[in-house]
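ARCHIVE CARD
Drawer: 12
Card no.: 0347
Subject: one protein chain, sequence and derived structure
Cross-reference: see card 0346
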Amino acid sequence: MVASLPERMTAIGFDEPGGPDVLVAKDCPVPEPGANQVLIKVSHAGVNRPDVIQRQGLYPPPPGASPLPGLEVSGTVVAIGEGAPPEMLNQPVCALVSGGGYAEYCLAHSGHCLHVPDRMPMDEAAAIPETLFTVWHNVFERGWARDGETLLVHGGTSGIGTMAIMLAKEFGLTVLTTAGSDEKCAEAREIGADLAINYKTQDFVEAVRKATEGRGADVILDMVSGDYVQRNLDCLAEDGRHVTIAVLGGIKAEINMAKLMSRRQTMTGSTLRPRSDEFKALLADEIHNHAWPLFEDGTIRPIMDETFPLARAADAHRRMEAGDHIGKIVLKVAAD
């Protein structure tokens, strides 16, 4: 079922990996939805660290995904493919996508969409899916976090960090976080962190031990890896869970296995993008049932940094790489 749509669209992509300047406007065909897919007329697209890493040539899209960057969008469903619910047509949604978000139109699996309520601005809707799906799966499913426990999340003012703080607090966790300046620590506390540690001036291992009276954090959400891993384990509680979602500090780590065994610690990790459509649909269902109501009623709203027009995607990437942002950077795609 396809409405009257243009044949061509403007998108942002790159021909060769490199710095932000390789991002250029492209004239592309409007994609057609296949089985179980919907076509979204994009209002806004979220900008995420994986977009930057893809642009650098270090994170290729999975087979079958769009080569264009962009892992989350908001907008209106304008066409549906076979097997997609017909009632989704003309509905406002936000969606987790495997690529293609930096464009006027984007395909999404119908099961990876969440309905956007009237009260939710579309820029905020675009800033939610990637971080929400990532945090829910890794903190609550892989990390088994539960009320009364303590979570340590690194990079508390990043998109992932801000989402993790807010979501964990709503589900009854004590949240400790790290950030790279006193100003960012103050922002993290304002967002809801119980303790924010300036990792440039404090030893976060000692700070976590002190805050937990020597017991350690029950769950650690790690985006750094490298030499952070053993330091994390040193402030992880007995029976604690260490969950890695990125390797910004290096892909290799040396750990003391004897300590890990004696403290019965668990290490795990995941990347969401290459997981199957079926897995992501099940994850979306769980989020819809347990977390999405907090966004629908405004209890949780994403922390927004800066919005750039689609044509200035390179500037959005520069801001992310500078590391000065607080919360989510988004691109405005649709014209007013």
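Annotation on reverse: The domain at 131-269 is CATH 3.40.50.720 (Rossmann fold). The first helix runs from residue 49 to 55.
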